[in-house]
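Suppose a colleague, Dr. K., hands you the sequence of a protein chain of 461 amino acids and asks what its three-dimensional shape might be. Before reaching for any lab equipment, you can write down a predicted structure in token form. Begin with the sequence itself:
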Amino acid sequence: MKLWGGRFRKETDSLVNDFNASIHFDCRMYREDIEGSMAHARMLGDCGIISREDAEAITQGLAGILADVEAGKIEFTADNEDIHMNVESLLTARIGAAGKRLHTARSRNDQVAVDLRLCLRREIVEITGQILDLIEAVLNQAREHQSTVMPGYTHLQRAQPVSFAHHLLAYGAQLARDVTRLADCRQRMNICPLGSGALAGTTYPIDRWETARLLGFDAPCSNSLDGVSDRDYVLELLGALSILMMHLSRFAEEVILWCSWEFKFIELDDAYATGSSIMPQKKNPDVAELVRGKTGRVYGDLMGLLTTMKGLPLAYNKDMQEDKEPVFDAVDTVKMCLPVFTGMIASMRVLPANMRAAAAGGFINATDCADYLTKKGMPFRDAYTAVGNLVYYCTGRGKLLEELTLEELRGISPLFGEDVYEALSLEACMGQRRSFGGPAVEETARQIEELTKLIEEYRHG
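The predicted structure, expressed as tokens, is then:
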């Protein structure tokens, strides 16, 4: 008979049993379920709600179950629906009547809520470590290429000269925000719902602060209805993971472009590329493409749960069983993508000569030419028009700005002097952009130092 079967006189239909069961996906929370039950039992004993002997028997029984699960000696069953009832049934079978006292002053509603918070809290720590590994790979490449000139782009058109380090560090900054966003999510998640009961708390003299402390939470949730009926912490995590995957997808898109023959800014290591079944010359960026593709999967996990939650009245509804599969899928997808993406970035070979050659075209020093005239006293808008005329002149003759003679330049403005050629060199255009956050070497060095400190803070802080 089901643990909840007292008022029922028929066995559950086998199809309903399978439809209702969640053990095939919530079994991954076995450790959290046992840890939560241990804390609950200890609190019940400390508060005199059950005897200390029963509390100790429960704790020892649960420890034995945990050891057996991790040794592969226990197989969970759908007959017991979920991880909570599987563990409780095992416990009662092992220690008898004391096991039946574990669920005093507790509901599966607050039990699953605490399990999921504990589980996702741990996953956030693991994912954060993986992001920090990726930032380190970005920094290692950036350190090597602070003076490597490449074209920066807007609208996928060559725009202004930057360094490859500067470009990579933009992704470093985005990933750093992903780290802090997950930390913020974890902080809001770290509130204990245990003791909320089914929805209205309990008449037993429990100590919710004790269970919160034992489980490493900052405090118990302040409203029992809220404690069991919301999943905003799951949605917030899914949102943070979606943003992270968006950053990875954009990075992946650029890697795909960069390793194409049309760009050829990088070459992927053979270990992080694949071939074609028919074209022997191909070297495909499948890692980057799969990361880009899996981004949509994580987005779908977020949108699915948002849709599930949008019309639910308080408090718990069985619909909320649908929270675990999407968040577990998103977590697993992210944890699969990050290490392989990190390896791809760490091992890619940068081709500075090709970047420099690309930077030489497209008049990406035109803004610097206008700035040159502005610094000589010409209003910027007039300088903008003058350089636009120069670009038009060059395109008709197949020339670059720096290839024009001084006579040709002075045909547009008498303010041009011999020093213009130094101002138009790509290295100078990049190196003189020393404004905070810019591509000059001293600025990329500062950005590298900032990200290095962030890694230290979150690894050891």
